[in-house]
Each structure stands twice: as structure tokens, then as C-alpha cells.
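HUMAN: Mind sharing a backbone?

ASSISTANT:
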Amino acid sequence: MEKKGNLIQFLLNPTGFFKKENYQKIRQESRKHLVTPLKVIAFMVAVSGLFAMIFEVRYYQHLQLEIYFTRLIATLIAFLILVFTNSKNSEKYSTALVHILLLTIIISSAIMIFMMPKTIVVNSQIVGLVIFTSALFLSWEVVNQIIAAIYYNLVFAAAILFNDQKIYILPNTLESLAFVLFMSLLSILGSAINFKLRLQVAEKSIETEKSEQKFKSIFNNALIGIYQTTLDGKIITANDAMAKILGYDKSEEVIGKDILTFYKNPQEREHLIELLNEKGLVENLRLTLIRKDFDEIYLKVNARLIDLNGNNQKIIEGNLQDITEQVKAEQIRDEYQESLKKEKEKSEKLAQEALNLSQVKSRFLANLSHEVRTPLNSIIGLLSIIEDGNARSEDEVRQFISTARSSAESLLEVINAILDLSKIEAGKIELEKLNFNLRKVVDQAVMVIHQKAREKGIKIFEELPPNDELNFVGDPTRIRQIYINLLGNAVKFTEEGEIRIKVETENQNGSRIKIISSIEDTGIGIPADKISELFKPFSQVDGSEGKKFGGTGLGLVICKEFLNLMDGDIKVESVEGVGTKFTFYFFVDPALSNILGKKSNTDSEQNKTNTDSLHEQLDQVLVEQRKKFRILLAEDNLINQKVAIRTLTSFGYQVDAVLNGEQALSEHKAKNYDLILMDIQMPEVDGYTATKMIRKLDSPLNSVPIIALTAHALLGDKEKCLIAGMNDYISKPVVAKEIVQILDKYLGIKKNKPQGENKVMDKASALFDFDRLNQVSLGDKEFEKDLLGDYFKDVEIKLETLKEFISQRNLKKIQELAHTLKGSSYSVGAKAIGDEALGIELSAKSLDIESVEERMIKLTKVVRESKELFKDVLAD
């Protein structure tokens, strides 16, 4: 209440004692609360009316009809009100219904007094009690009670006034009137007190409700989860935020659940209980929970232990906040920091490696400079002595020339090592599949280093299986290079003692053979901390040893890469001052037969066939044949021109030289040369462009053989030359024996043989490589017959398929099929077919369908000629 006052002031101004909005709300609530007591009063009136009809009629029989009718009407009205209170509009009309019911009671009692004056005391007392009871029983405003008292007094006054005069002389009439007035006043006062007390209670209830709603709103709308749980984990209180954190919509869904079911690690709950028991309060404790949808969340929890209702029953009360995003951000931050730390360490490591690499490269360049300058210095110095005529004798001149040649070969080895490494790093090394004998390969490698080993007095021992067990299919060139590199190192770093070569073989399920080999020396050894650096490019044991022993530091790297290409590997064991042992393995395929191991004379014959000496090439008969041919040399370097012209003319060729591709085109147009040697890099017009221009000339100028003569020595350069239209490829520096063999092949120059044999061999040399066929078959004629029969059948099928692809203009399929045909043709020695297939492959790759069609005609022709060459063999 806002103001204090007495009852009179409340009667005069009830709204002044309460807040206006509270008073109006209480009035509305009082109307709702009238319905229940109204039902009770209506029921009692209806029941009492029934009893009155029975007992009053018995005592007043002369008025039984009037009594019966009056009580019946009152009972019916009470009954109808009782029925109406159960309708949905009962609250709206509750006050009016109370007045109707009270009027019904008062009027019916007044009628009884009017008809039976002697009952005035009883009826006045009954009605007075009803009015007083209604004042205490009904929660309505005082004004309604005043109205009820007024018409209560008016009706009784009317009942007395309209009665006969006898009523005034009845005993207790005045007392009854006084009682009525007293009860009226008392009911008003009682109603006021009741209503005032009810208003006070109601206002406190409203304030309490508002406070509860306020805190409930705060509780339910809080962004953090608020909860209470028992010590064993049962949730007894939770707000909506708590429910949403756990994956539910409403708090009702989580109340009663076990909080332990949401913990990812139950040990965290146990830890929380321990802290609460120890301190009674926990702040900012991080927990990991699993939501209803099984998502993992991170929470920050504040909790405390409290007594429930003061009965020493402990519960946990607290709040929790979802910090999942914060934790994830922290994790990302930590990851970034860790990543930055690792990157920093990596950068520092790379910087150190770069510094080390820079030092290694500097040392390598110094060594390379030494390795290059030393033979160059020797070559230049010796040639200067010869040029100045300071040689003492012809023998000394020959000695100088031999030394200069050896120095040049040493320089070429350095360059080849660098080129091999570049090919390996570019992934352009392709292994060959050739028949070979491993003992022969090892012996060849030993021969390379034998002279140096003999000069140092180093003995070389070989421990190899029997010769007939060493026939394999693989890449003998790379295998030989591995042995040469390792043996070269062994000789270089061994001053005295021995070198031991050991080879073992293991069959691998019958399909492949594992070769395990070792090379052990008694040299200076390798420090343990340097072994890990051995197989890195440009690395050597140290600078001083590099200066003392020389070398580029590429040999072991090339060995390891070659072995990796053959599915093998290499390792090293070394003790300083004792020696070093390199152990390595690689895989090869079994040979087709053991002929190579059984027929020792075959090797000597093969060597004799494959090795043409300079004396044979300088045979006068061959020189005379070469004089018929004119060769055009396109070379922009005058020194190289001079060397090439001198070399070729010494073998009998007629040679003219030009400085670039444009001059080569002009000279060829004018003189129609039999063959052109074309450099690639030349001023104005290069070799590629000049070749393409020559191929566009009219026949027969456009069919001249063009051989690339270039310092480009990487894998893929030959293919570029062939695509440009060249016939073959020779890399610089040029060896006289090799260039003469190639020129003789394209010009058809052979040593004179009997007429029939010469004709066959001339034709065969252009179509087939018999050495290759013999190498594949190992001299087995029956195998050759079967192989050639299957090959030519396969070629016929591929020819028909190629024609179909050409008609469909399917360049991709043409390229793939031509590539397959090229490989199989070169494998058996059908070089003419292989060359044309390669041409078709390259033309298809360049999307030149016209060139494909032209080459298809040539391919068909060489297939027919090749089959004709072997018709007798295939017919047998």
C-alpha cells in the first residue's frame, strides 16, 4: 500500500490505498474469484429452498400454495444461476449473478414475512446471516456489499410497511429491525475489511509475481546456461540457454536428465566435484561436453555448492558459457604459431642448407674449373707446341697428339657426367632392354681403369658366378657406367693394396633376377660424418681431398640414380685408413637363352662385326666410292668447319661449307648435294628452319638426307630434329669413325663384295639392322624365323588398323599405334619400318594429317620390301 489510513478512508476512497494498475487488476481478478463461491451459495439456496417447501408448507397449510410457489421460484432461480456459472460467460456476469441470487433470497424471505409476520425473526436472521456471510465469503468490492445492504433493508422495510398493523405489536419486531440494520452495517464493514485484506494480499501477490516474472525473464533469457544439479548429476533446474547449449530447444527437455551423459571425459566431472568439495566454489573451469547431435563443445563453468532448503542436502548451482568458437580460434592460433615456428625452423634450415649448398657449389665450380681447365690447358699447350714446330721429332708429335686426345676424352667425360645428371633430374632417362653378359660388362669396366690401377700397383680381384649364369636382359650401358664410376673412385682413393669385385644373383619368382654386387677397396676410407653427403650432387668428402684427387662429385649421384631406375639402391661402409665397400643391387630380366654364355667365339665375332677400325674405313675402295658424293656442311664456327672438312675429305668425301641455314638452302638449290650435315644453332636461319624449307622444295631436292650435327645432347633433341624433317642426329664432339659410319649408311657405301651378295647387303643395310636381330636372337636361327614371322603378321594387322584411323582422321589413335609399331620394329632391327612409324607418330603428334598420309605410303612400301628381304627365311 502506498498510503496508510483508517477503514472510513478506505470506504470513501479505496483506490487511494493501492497502485491504480494493481487495483484494476485486482478488480478483474475478483470477478474471476466470484464464480466459485457463487456456485456454493446457489447450491445451498437451491437445497434450502427444497427443504423450505417441505417444512413450511406443513406448518402453514392455509398458505401452502403461496409458500410453495415462492420457494419454488427462488429454488429455480438458484438452480438456473448454478447452471449458468458453468458456462464460459460466467466470469463476465458473476457480480450481477450474485446480486440476483441475493435479491432472490431477500425477496423470498420478505414475501414470507409479508404472508407470515410471525416468521420475521427467523427470516431476518437467515437473510442477515446470508448477507454477512456473503460479505466475508465473496471477494467483491465494498460498493457491491453496500448495494446489497440497501436493497436488503428496503425489501424488509417494504415487507413490514405493506403488512397489517399486527406486525408492529409482535414480540421482537424492533429487535429484528435493529438486527437487520446491524447486520447490514456489519456486512458492509466486514466486506470492507475482507476486501481490503484481500487487496493487500493480492497486491503483494502481484508484486511477488512481477518480481518472479522479472527474475524468470532474466533466467530464461540469459545468454549463459544456468543450472542446478544434484551431486550425482541429475539436472533439477535449467534455463533455455542451458538447453540450447546441450542441443535441446526448451529447458523442460533437459530437466531430469543426467548431466554425466553429456561429459566427453567423466574424469572432468569427478575433478569438478573434488574442487567444489575442497573450495566450495569453482570459477572459469573448462569442460568438454557432447551435445545431443554428438557435436563436441567447449564450456567455461562457474559453480558452487549450496544447501537445498536448509536441510543439509548439497546441490551444485552455477552457470556455463559456450566457448567453442573461442577454443577453436585458440587452437587455430596455436596451430598457426606452431606452423610459423616450424616454418621459421624450416627457413633457418633451408637458409643453412642454402649456405651449405652455396659452399658446395662453390667448391664444385672450383673443382669443375680444375677438371675442365686441366685437360684444356694440356690440349692448348700441346697443340701450341706442335703449331710452333717446337716438337723434337715425329714420335714426340704423335705422343703430344695422343696426350691431347686423352685430355679431350677426359674433358668429354666431365661434360657427359653433367649431361647424365641433367637427364636424370629431368626424368628423361629411358632404360634399354638388351641381351648382355654381366661378366663381359664388368670386364669392360675393369679395362677402363686397368691402366691406372696397374700404374699404382693395385690388384683387382673378381668373384663372379659361372659365365653361363650371367646372361640377362637389361641396360648394359648404364650397368657398365655404374661399375666404371665405382671402380674409378676405388682406384682414385687407393694408393696401394687391392680392389675386390663381387657379384651374386637371386631369382625373384622366376620373372626377374636380383643382382647383388659389391666393390671393396683398401683406400683412405671415408669419415663417418661425411657418408650421408656422398650421394648428393656436387658433394665430395672435403675441399682438400677434392683438390688432391680431383673429380666433379657427380659419379656416385649418377650411380644411385641409375640404380633407382632399375629398382635398386646402393649403400656404403667405410673405415678411415682401412678402406671402403660399396654394396648395391638392381634387377634385370632373364635372357632368352644361354647361348651367349656358352659360345665364347660368338663374342669375338660380334666384336669384330661391331668394331670398324679406321684402317677399314680408309680402305682405298671405300675412299674411291666416297669421291662420287658431295656433302654440304652448314656450320657457323670456322674452327669446327675446318676440323669437319679435314676429317671428311681424308675419308674421300667432297665437302662444301656454309655459315648458316639460308646459305645452305641457296647452295643446295644450286648444286643438289647428296647429303647435308646441318648444325642447329646458326645465325639468321637456324638448322630446324633450314631443314623445313628444304623439305618444301620440289623433288628430288626435297629428299636429300639431312643429318643434324649439333652440341645439343639432351634426351628429346633427336626427336626435335626428326620432327623438323632431318634423317638422323650426331652430337658433338664428333668422332671420325662414327660420322663416317653414318654417312656411309645413308649414301649406301659398302666395301665391294661378290655381285650377288653385294646387292642383297646394300638392300638389307637400308631396311634392316642384322646386328640388332642377331643380338635379340642370340644367333638362334629358329628363334629368328619365329620372331620375324610373328612380327610381320603383327605389322600387317597394324597397317590395316592405321589405314582405318587415317580415314577417320583419328590422330590420337594414329599416334598411339605408330608408337607401338615403332617400338616393336626397332626391337627386332626393322629400322626402316621403325623410322617411318616414328615419322607417322611425330606427324600425328603435330596434327599434320597430310604428312601422315604421305608417310603411310612410304611405310607400306618399306614393309613390302622388308618382307621380300626375308621371303626365303619365312618360306622355310
Remarks:
- The CA atoms of residues 6 and 12 lie 10 Å apart.
